C-alpha cells in the first residue's frame, strides 16, 4: 500500500511539472511588443558612462526624452570604422529611430553616407567639423551640425588664468584642427584682455600642437619640461594627451586647465575647464524638431557660444582664489550686454578668421610657438 501511494504521489508531481512547463512554453510563444526607439545615440566603446564627453550628450537625450515621453537608446559601434558604424546606424533605423545623434567628426563619413540612403531619417552631428575657412562639410537636408565657439571658451580660460595671478602660461593642443585652434586663439586673446585690464607689462605663453590626441610618456615629458622652465598652468586641449599633462602637473605641483567637459574630477591640478554645453546643445536640436513645428535644422550649422549658453567655464568645481564665481558672472553679463545692446561696443574674439596664432594682434602676451 505504501509503495502504491508513493508511486501515485510521484505521478501527480510529474504531471504537475509537465503542466507547468507547458504553460510556460505557451507564454513564451506569445508575441512580445517591441517598443520602437525614437531617438538614438551612436557611440564608440562599450558603455556610454565610461566617456564623460559622450555621457554629456546622452544626458541631454535622456532629459529631453524622459520629459517628453520619447523612447531613447544608445548603440555601441565598438570602433568608429566606417562599415561598423553604418551597420550600427542601420540597426537603430530598423528599431524605429527617427533622429540619430553622434558626437564628434569621426562619425561624419558614416552619417553622411547613411543620410543619402535614408532621407526620411534625421541625423545630428554634435561638435562636428562644420564649415570653416579650411574645409567645408557636405550638407544635406536631413543632417544638422552643431559646432561651438571654442574661441570664446578659450578666451574665458585665458582671462581667468591671468586674473588668478598666472603670468607664464602654456597651450598644448592635439592636432591643429579648427576646433583645437579656436581654443588656442581664444586663450591668447583672453590672456591679452586680462593683462591689459591689469596693466601688466608682459605675459609669456608657450604654444604647441602635438599632431595627435594620445596620452604618452613623450607628452608627459614635454609638459614637465615646460613646467620646469617656469610655466605655471597649461591649457590642454588634447584629448587623452591631457592626462599626460595632468600627470606632469601632479609630479611638479603645477596647474592645468581642462577642456570640453568639467575635468576637475580627473586631477586635483585642474583649476577650471573650458566647457562645451553638450547637454544643452542636444536638447536645443531636439526641441527644434519636436516642438518648433518640425523645424529640424537640416542643411544648417548651429554655432553655439556664450550668447547661446553653449560654452563657459566650470566654476562650481573651480580651484581658484582670485577669479571667483562673482567675477565670472560679471564677465558673462558684460559679454551678453555687449552682444545684445544696440550701439554697445562688441567684444570681438577671433576664431576661424585667423590662419595662425602669430596673426593674433597682441601687445602684452608673447607667444612662443614650438
Describe the protein's architecture and organization.
- The protein is α/β, with parallel strands linked by helices and 370 residues long.
- It has two domains: 39-148 and 280-304, Rossmann fold (3-Layer(aba) Sandwich); 151-273 and 311-369, Rossmann fold.
- Helices cover 42% and strands 19% of the residues.
- It contains ten helices and 13 strands.
- The chain has helices spanning 2-29, 52-67, 82-94, 108-117, 150-164, 178-198, 217-228, 241-252, 278-291, 325-340, and strands spanning 39-43, 72-76, 99-103, 122-126, 143-148, 168-173, 203-209, 233-237, 255-260, 270-276, 300-304, 311-313, 365-369.
- The strands form two sheets. It has a seven-stranded mixed beta sheet, sandwiched between helices. Strands 2-1-3-4-5-11 form a six-stranded parallel beta sheet, with helices on both faces.
- Helix 4 (108-117) links the parallel strand 3 and strand 4 (122-126).
- The longest helix is centred in the first third of the chain and has 28 residues, at 2-29.
- The radius of gyration is 27 Å and the shape is globular.
- It starts with a helix and ends with a strand.
- 42% of the residues are buried.
- The model is unreliable at 1-27 (pLDDT under 50).
